[in-house]
Structures are given as structure tokens and as C-alpha cells.
Amino acid sequence: MSEESLNGRNYTRPTNKEKYELLKKKNEEALEGGGKERIEAQHKKNKLTARERIHLLLDEGSFEETGKFVMHRAKDFGLDKQHYLGDGVVTGYGTVNNRLVYVFSQDFTVFGGSLSETHAEKIVKIMDLAMKNGAPVIGLNDSGGARIQEGVVSLGGYADIFYRNTLASGVIPQISAVMGPCAGGAVYSPAITDFIMMVENTSYMFVTGPNVVKTVTQEDVTAEELGGAGTHSTKSGVTHFSCANEVECINYIKRLLSYVPQNCEDDAPQLPYQVQGDESRPALDTVIPDNPNQPYDMREVIEGLADEGSFFEVHKNFAENIVVGFARLGGRSIGIVGNNPAFLAGVLDRHASTKAARFVRFCDCFNIPLLVLEDVPGFLPGTDQEWNAIITNGAKLLYAFSEATVPRVTVITRKAYGGAYDVMNSKHIGADMNYAWPMAEIAVMGARGASEIIFRKEIATAEDPEAKLQEKVDDYTNKFANPYRAAHRGYVDEVIMPSETRRKLMKAFKMLENKVATLPRKKHGNIPL
């Protein structure tokens, strides 16, 4: 310390060394979060700290923190006596596989990760930077919700984040990992983002918790049952990935990022690929059973078409009658949508329609070509579906495909019946290339149902109605339950052997890589929500 005179009064000025020591002390204080005891409590719950999560996510040594010394401004309810550097959230930027990303990680050891005015400001700042620089935002959520002591100020902070989530939608990829509680208004930010990941047994999401549910509806339900990873990955479809632990969750984020571009102006990622001689896949010739009513798993087809080990399924445990996910074809990142006959015969219902529509719209936002594998017997009938808006929900998928301007290729592997044929990326709604396998059945409905309607009187008056019905079924099958009528009309570009499909797709997507399509000038469409 050195003594100096200021306005006739002596004061002690710190030396540079002492200033350096102060900075070092503050940096150490910021790294401690809520203190060792709370960090240990976090670990006992099988949860990592905010900084440990960032360390696992980002490339070694790439993280640059912003707002490390920010503190809350509130003074009510004893907050004037509690201050923690960083105010419950770690924010900054770094790289994942050498690609720029922005990240915020909420710190449950500080005020339970609750969101305050300054906590929100830190998140908003990195979201603004991400928009300006065209890079993904990753949110690692672990928060008790709005900081009650700050009242409406904390609610305003949430709204500031929601607003930016909405502005960023379709501009930059946004990924939310829920790694602890996420309740009340806090759930809406992840809901607006592109993908949500949850960790089994340690994370949950709900608008109102078990206690409120008990008070209002008299239902006894646990937090896990109400809004855990299992619930949201199977029943509601809110979360896209249910992860066994936080390390798996972070690895999923990294893998997901490898398939998506940095922003809407960027092209889908493409890895170097050397053609492996003969690209035919003979095993695909035996995937489809001879019996058209026998199921098979569409994932077998996907694995046969995509680059080995590249398929990354999204929403795996929700609406299993349709499969969506990312893969690579000749190194090129593509999105895949496929009906799955192994579950509900691959029928389209309200959940499958919305699941696929959401995925299609994401791929179109970020220039990821779409491959559609079609084996669909129609839309699921019944009062449950009709009363729960299968019309509107089915229209979402129709709208999503119709609006998509990315390269779009369809392969009809077996059934393509009724309105579902139209909806599943048909030539009529803008698909670029449509292929069919020889066993494809493209018709208004199945041969038996069609025959029962068309030849009802003839069958009823026949000496042997069952024999007459079978005769008409065989006749209808020969005439309509094949891909050739559609091919004659140009609705199918080519009927191909299953084993040749991979080679055909690689050429088709290569041909379409410079596709330019524009929609009519408008403010925005009005998707049937």
C-alpha cells in the first residue's frame, strides 16, 4: 500500500500486486458458486455443477466466460445480505468440435438456480451475441424458477428470454438440456427451443407441481410421474431425448450438433466420403415380408440406406408408429421421416403427425435435406382420434411438407393409402424425387376394403359371397395395388429394386444440392396449430 493525499486527507492506494490478488480472489470466489457444502449436496443427487457440465460439453480450454462477477441488485427479504458472484448462472462461449457455440448453465448451488433480473440479463446477452454471430445456443437448465424475492422483475426476465427464443427460432439452432427442476414459467423457454433433453430421475418439467395438482384436482402424483423424463419422452412428447445420466445427455448434445448447421444461412454439415465401390445393399431386397400385413421395423431400412452407424433417432419413445432422426448419406447430413409398420402398422395418428411435422419444419429451417420412407395404411380411425383433432394435427404434417423448400425425396417401400399417401411427401405437394419399390401398393385403400365397397351388391347376390369377394380383391390388387399406375402418371419417378435405393438416393441428393425454391411473398403462413 502507498499513502497519498486527496483533498488534504491521507488515503492508502492499493499496489498493482494487491489489485492482482483481489482479481484472483474474486475469480476463485466465482468458481466456488454457492460453496463447498452445496456443491457436495449437488453431487449427492448425482448431479454435476454448472461449471462441470460446461467443461464436459465444450472443447478443452475453449470456454470464455462472460458476466462472471455479476451480482443481483435486489435488497428485499434479506437479499442485501446474500451475494454470490455470477448470480446463479454461468454464461459464455466456446467450441464443440471446433465450432462456435454459446452456452448458459444454471447453478443450483446459488439460490437454487432461481432466475433474477441480472441472471436473466446474462442469458439475454449471450442469446443476442449468438444471433449476431450466427451460432447455436445451448441452455443447461437447473433452476427452481423465478426468484420469488424479486417479484415481477424476475418474471420480466423470463419474458425477455422467451422473446429472444422466439426471434432466434429458425435463425440459429437452440438446444435445451433440463438437468434438474424446471417448473412454472421456466418451462416455456425450453418449449420454444428446437430440442429438449432430460435426465432420468434427476430432472422434471411441469407448469404446476404436485402440490398444486393435489389442491386443485385431488390427484396424488409425484414430481417424476407428473413431469419426469420418462413421462415427457413417452406420454407428452415434450422431450426429444431421455438420457440415463448427465454425461450421456451432454454427449447427445454434441452428437446432435454434428448434424446441424451453425445457422439458417449455412448448409447442412457434410463429412468427407469415399465411395465404397458397389453401393448396393442386397439385404434390403429381403426386408419386406411377402405377406403385406406382416410388420417389419423401418429402422432396418434406415440402417441399410444410411452411412454405417450414422442414424441418430429423435423422439424415439414417443409416437413410435413414425420414426424421425438424422443420418448421413455419403457423408451428407439428412433428416429422415419413416412410417414404422412394427408399431400400429405405421398408421398416422395425431401424435405421429405432430412429431413428424415438428421435425420436418426444423430440417427445413436449417437446410437439411429430407428423406421420407413411406409405408402407411392411412390415418388411425376412431372417436379418440377425431375428438382429439386428428384433422388439424394431420394437417400440420401436410403443411410442413408442403412448405418445405429443402431437397425432398420419397421412397414408397410398401403401402401408400388414401390421404396419407398425399401427406407423406407425395409428388403433388412438392417432393423432388419419388421412388417406389416393386411391392409398393399405391391406392385409395386396401384391396379388400375397396372391393367390399365397389362390388357390394355383386358380392351380396353371388352364390358364394366369400369366393366372389376374393375374386374382386385379386382383381383390384392386380389393377391398383402396385406402383405402376402411379409411375405411368409420373407420380412416381422410378420403380427401383430395394438393393439399388442407396445408390439412387446418393445421386438424387447430389443432383438436388443446388435446389432453389421460393414460397409466395407473405409475412408468414398460418399453420393449423
SSE order and pairing:
Elements: E1 2-6, E2 9-13, H1 16-31, H2 36-44, H3 50-57, E3 64-66, E4 89-96, E5 99-106, H4 117-133, E6 137-141, H5 152-168, E7 174-178, E8 181-183, H6 188-192, E9 195-199, E10 204-206, H7 210-217, H8 223-227, H9 229-236, E11 241-243, H10 246-257, H11 298-305, E12 312-314, E13 322-329, E14 332-339, H12 350-365, E15 370-376, H13 383-387, H14 390-403, E16 408-417, H15 418-423, E17 433-436, E18 441-443, H16 447-454, H17 456-460, H18 465-480, H19 484-489, E19 494-495, H20 501-511
Parallel strand pairs: 5-6, 6-7, 7-9, 8-10, 9-11, 14-15, 15-16, 16-17, 16-18, 17-19
Antiparallel strand pairs: 1-2, 3-4, 4-5, 12-13, 13-14
Describe the structure.
With 529 residues, this protein is α/β, with parallel strands linked by helices. It is 38% helix and 19% strand. Strand 1 (2-6) and strand 2 (9-13) form a beta hairpin. Helix 4 packs parallel to helix 5, helix 12 (350-365) runs parallel beside helix 14 and helix 16 crosses helix 18. The protein is elongated. The mean pLDDT is 92.
Report the sheet with the most strands, covering strand number, pairing sense and barrel closure. 8 strands, mixed
Distance between the termini: 67 Å
Oligomeric assembly? single chain
Strand content: 15-25%
Notable characteristics:
529 residues, alpha/beta, eight-stranded mixed beta sheet, seven-stranded mixed beta sheet, 19 strands, 38% helix, 19% strand
Q: Can you give me a brief rundown of this structure?
A:
The protein has 529 residues and is an alpha/beta fold.
